[in-house]
């Protein structure tokens, strides 16, 4: 395995980074859909609904440049197919985000240049069909027990309390938008549409005041929290984000094995806000806020001078700050020994998901939990 000295940014101790996983959300996009009374239709967006905008392309190009700079001396200067593997969901905006990101990371040098007028080179991005995706698209809809847990979540005190507090607003939203299923679980969709329209200079209807947007934002963030947390977090995570965490831990453990022949230094996952939330809830580090466009959760494996392997995590959700925020696994230091990291996350790693997904007792499905955006 090729390793290179990698000077840590927050510590002066020289150590070696063995492998890294990067999970990021796609960049700025058009809304996923319009609401019934929406004055703007799909034809008002250059490529229609759910598509990466030019702003989103710029955001990921910038993130790619940031990653290039951060991992100088760890990754080769030029693209090396043995060192980096990119996996995306099979969705236009995540595939395009990965392409823009790689354009920022690996502009062609020397013999890589195939057209002198083009500062770009093709780099493979791997994906699987949406109906086969079990690693990056959450919440997975194939799990009756998860549906049961979401139904139970709706009966908890905190959920009923939020429904009661915001009853008036939800009723107003239902009347103004024509959305029959306006509730705490579906409100993110409306907020998202209004947010996208405003960000792209489209004037909102008169009822959409800044106060209404602020309240919708609170409900939208709560909608993210209940997906994998709030109620029975560990069990929800075993059925959802624990799948991705399990894969990342296997990557780290393989790289740290004494006879490791792993060449890949960086696994990159291009996905969605719900993917980041699913992973961060499994790690118990979610801050309760929707991950912004092009936000990136970094997980790094380092070998210290004494030979001990440690895991360090960072979250880049603010491009105005030069360094990403350090993230600590609860119960461990920010430089968490790999074995401690494995032990502390064991409860959310699925052992037999098919069995765990079976219904415990009779339950009815009342909710639509398709949150991917």
Automatic annotation (TrEMBL):
Its EC number is 3.1.3.2. It is a single-pass membrane protein. Residues 1-21 form the signal peptide. GO terms for biological process: lysosome organization. One of its GO terms (molecular function) is acid phosphatase activity. It catalyses: a phosphate monoester + H2O = an alcohol + phosphate. It is an enzyme of class 3 (hydrolase). Its main location: other. Keywords: Disulfide bond, Glycoprotein, Hydrolase, Lysosome, Membrane, Signal, Transmembrane, Transmembrane helix. One of its GO terms (cellular component) is lysosomal lumen. It is found in: Lysosome lumen; Lysosome membrane. Belongs to the histidine acid phosphatase family. This is Lysosomal acid phosphatase. It comes from Sinocyclocheilus rhinocerous.
